Amino acid sequence: MNAPLREDAVRYQGFSPSRVGALVLRHVYLLRSSWPRVLEVIYWPLVQMVMWGFLQSYLNQQSGMLAQAGGTLIGAILLWDILVRSQLGFSVSFLEEMWSRNMANLLISPLKRSELLVALMSVSVIRLAIGILPVTLLAIWFFGFNLWRLGLALGAFFANLLLTAWAVGILVSGLVLRNGLGAEGFAWTIMFLILPVCCVFYPVETLPEFLRFVAWSLPPTYVFEGMRALMFEGNFRADLMIRALAINGLFILVAGFVFIRLLDSARRAGTLLSLGE
Fold it and tell me: What whole-number distance in Å separates Cα of residue 271 and Cα of residue 169?
């Protein structure tokens, strides 16, 4: 190997923040140049916040536990939107590369698999900020609900929901790489498959006994149980957040392993160049 090739090989070894930044910048430019994309990111969180906010306003006019329970609805829907928008931010950014037939170019470039995933995680945070920040401020204005008053607890909720969303996004991306765009439906539906057992709007005790184990195996369940404990009792359950973090760590490792295996399988099957078909 001659000297220039050896220098290139050394340069491309290791993790490169500049390559991650370049891919993130591509998606920032894509959002900046397309107002419909930005509007779509904000639209659904806003619609859900308004709908559930009006329901909460009605329940607040009632008395007793009904009014107290109503106060958790808008908090639950905002946290649920953080989970869904984070996963869609990851998955849609990945699908943008598929729709533009750019994925094969990325995979034969010096961009590493880990750098691709980190870039998509970063873009998901940007898209989440665009969609959720205005909605949380409007929730204060319209309904007097301030999600930010949860303080440090909100950081723990946010981190765990983000990690779950990334794990699901990585898994969906691997499925699309291996099976083509015919599998993109998972990006839009997979979160709603787990919605009933994540206990977003009701405690785990509401579920039948045989489903409670499934619920406690999902990190979002701990987040929503923690939110209810904080809002009903004023008690931050750090133990729930630690358990959710441990499960999320396992989920991320499994999702990363599955992604690599599916990518290698797609390469062996020779389907990478026909992913846009």
Answer: 20
Query: What pTM value is reported for the model?
Result: 0.84
Q: How far apart are CA 90 and CA 168, in angstroms?
A: 9
Q: What is the Cα–Cα distance from 175 to 177, expressed in whole angstroms?
A: 5
Domain annotation covers residue 84? yes
Q: 246, 213, 239, 214: which is closest to 225 by C-alpha?
A: 239
pLDDT in tens, 125-184: 999 999 888 888 888 887 777 888 888 888 999 999 999 999 999 999 999 888 888 788
Report how far residue 160's alpha carbon sits from residue 219's, in angstroms, rounded to the nearest whole number. 7
Does 31 fall in a domain? yes
Q: Is the pLDDT of residue 91 over 80?
A: yes
Joined tokens for residue 135? 């909605």
Domain count, the chain: 1
Is residue 224 within 8 Å of 246, Cβ to Cβ?
no
